[in-house]
Each structure stands twice: as structure tokens, then as C-alpha cells.
Amino acid sequence: MGTTDTTKPNFDSILSERKAFDETKASVKGFVDEGIKKIPSFFHHQPDKNEIAYNNCHVLPIIDLADIDNKDPIIHQKIIDKLKEACETWGFFQVVNHGIPLNILEELKDGIKRFHEQDPEVKKDLYTTDPKGPFTYNSNIGGLSNSPALNWRDTFICFLAPDTPKPEDFPLVCRDILIEYSKQMMNLGFLLFELLSEALGLNPNHLKDMGCVEGLIAACHYYPPCPEPDLTVGLKKHSDTGFLAVVLQDHIGGLQVLYQDKWVDVKPIHGSLVVNVGDLLQLITNDKFKSVEHRVVANQVGPRISAACFFYNGHKLSSRLYGPIKELLSEDNPPKYRETTIGDYAVYSPAAKRLGCTSVLSHYKI
């Protein structure tokens, strides 16, 4: 009779614990409300190889759009050049004077907080693991069974474009602000993709005409205070799937970007938005723009509130092919990726990331 290897984790037991947690529909906030002092083991993350490698000497590039309508071509080009450098080196930047009123940003944060701090019985009626609806609320969306460890956060996701949201699709406590924010974000998206097109040396409408601004998905996160923040993370290391992400974060911070193999804190700037290149934008720019790994650390302070808007149409499967933009290619710069449909990409990418792939893009490399 063979002996049992007690050093290996009992995955059946771990999965059972996760399912039991999910079935409570109380989410991570439920643990905090109960006053727990020790977090469950299925939230424990293995230390990252860059765990203690920090770089506090660098600051995320800041792009000021205050003069974007200035008719002086020199002023306009300076903004484009700074944007180009940020996308090529960091893959991240903070944008200020972006045109979305401060009161709308504050109301969105308040609306997210109102939703997550509702009576637990009200939220339980909205809790679902079905990602097909226009509004999905649960804890650790998409990663309950496959992720090595769960994240210390609760989330609701809503689809804002291309289909116009119906008010009745969203909870009353955050309905109006979600609809208003989607309008504001689409306007900003059109502007950002025009500027990104120019930064690539293309016609301002190029990325828009490729469909990069067609889809918009909002993920609204609530990170409760964590009694053992060194054992877990708010959001594990990852790169984003779509074309572009625009993130509103509150004053607490916790977002970190992997830059030159070290973690750099993205310090909150009141009224700013954090923008980052997604995997698909790196693919179609043939590695000119970089999709960079990032994470959110857990914190004893909280709750931390953030809203990430993703320009990505993965929920509306299309046969349109996406590959390196031909105008960017040359004999010295041949295509590095094969073409893919959004349908193929949307199926492969989330599954690969849940299984721990460090780069989804490698699957499409030529």
C-alpha cells in the first residue's frame, strides 16, 4: 500500500471551501463584518518573485489634456509625444484635465460604495456567477475554481456598450451614475484613441475605425480592510485583456505597476484617471505599445474603491480579424503576431489567465 503525500495541498478540500464561501453569497465584506482576525487559507497568495523589489524613484507619467484643443500644433505635438513615450515605456499613465467633471467621479465612487454596503440580504438577491447578464455581482468573478488563490475584493461588472444600458438592468443605488459615467467614458475613449492613433503616426480615426471603442465594460471593485494584508492581495498580478483600461481609484491607493522588474506605486492624484495599454492594443501595434503587468496590494485600511473601464468587445463575438496594423509594418518590422478574431481571443484569454499564464500574447506569437 502506498503512502499519502501530505505535503501536497488537498485541492478537493480547497475547492470545497471555496464553494462553501461562494454559497454564503456574503462576499469578502461578509468576513470583515463578522470581525475575523485570520483570513481563510484560500486567500493566501504565494510570494511574487518581485514581492520585495520596489522602485520609489519613478513616478507614473502624467498626461495633462488641458491644452488638447489648442490650435498651436507644437503644443498638440508635445502631448502626443509624451503619450507615445508613456505607452512605449510604461504602458501606463495618469491623465488629468480629461474632461469628466469631478462631481461625477466622486458620485461614481459613492455609488460603488453604496452598492457594496447595502444590507447583505439585498445583495444576496443580486449575487450571481452567470457572467452573461448586463450586471454581474459576486466575489472573485471568473476565478473561484481555477485561480491559485482568491483576491481580497468584491466586484460588480456591468456592460455599458455597444448596447445602451437599460436603467432597470442596474441596481437603484448606483443606476443613474453608472449610466452617466458610461456616456462620459465613451467621450473620453474616443479622444484617447484619437490621440493614440496620432502617437502611432496614423490617421486620428484609425483605431476607432478598427472597432477599438465599440465595447465598454465597467468593473467596480470594493476592497475591504484586510486583517492580514501580507498574506493576500487585492488583485493578483495580471495584464489586461482588451485594448485600453481607464481606472478611477480613490485616495487609499494600492495599485502597483511592474516597471523594470520592480513594483512602482501609482500614487492617487485627486481627479485623475489611470490609463493602461491592454494585450490587444499591444498585439495590433506589434509590440510598439506595451501591455504591462500590475496588481493591487491588500491593506489594513479601507474600504478601497475603484472603477476600471475596459474598452473591449469580447462579450459581442465578432468575426473581424485583428492583427498587427499593416501601416506599422516594414521589412525591418515584420508582424510578430498572427491574426485572431475577438471570438477566439475572448475564449482563450480569460481561461489562460485563470490558469496562471504570464502572457496571453505568447499564444499568438508568430
UniProtKB/TrEMBL annotation:
EC numbers on record: 1.14.11.20
One Gene Ontology MF term: desacetoxyvindoline 4-hydroxylase activity
Presence of keyword Acyltransferase: no
InterPro entries found in the cross-reference section: DIOX_N, IPNS-like_FE2OG_OXY, IPNS-like_sf, Oxoglu/Fe-dep_dioxygenase_dom
PROSITE patterns: FE2OG_OXY
Top-level EC class as recorded in UniProt: oxidoreductase
Domain Fe2OG dioxygenase: 212-314
SUPFAM superfamilies: Clavaminate synthase-like
Cofactor dependency: Fe cation
Presence of the UniProt keyword Metal-binding in the record: yes
Keywords of the record: Iron, Metal-binding, Oxidoreductase
Pfam families, alphabetized: 2OG-FeII_Oxy, DIOX_N
Family: Belongs to the iron/ascorbate-dependent oxidoreductase family.
Name of the featured protein: 1-aminocyclopropane-1-carboxylate oxidase-like protein
Species of provenance: Medicago truncatula
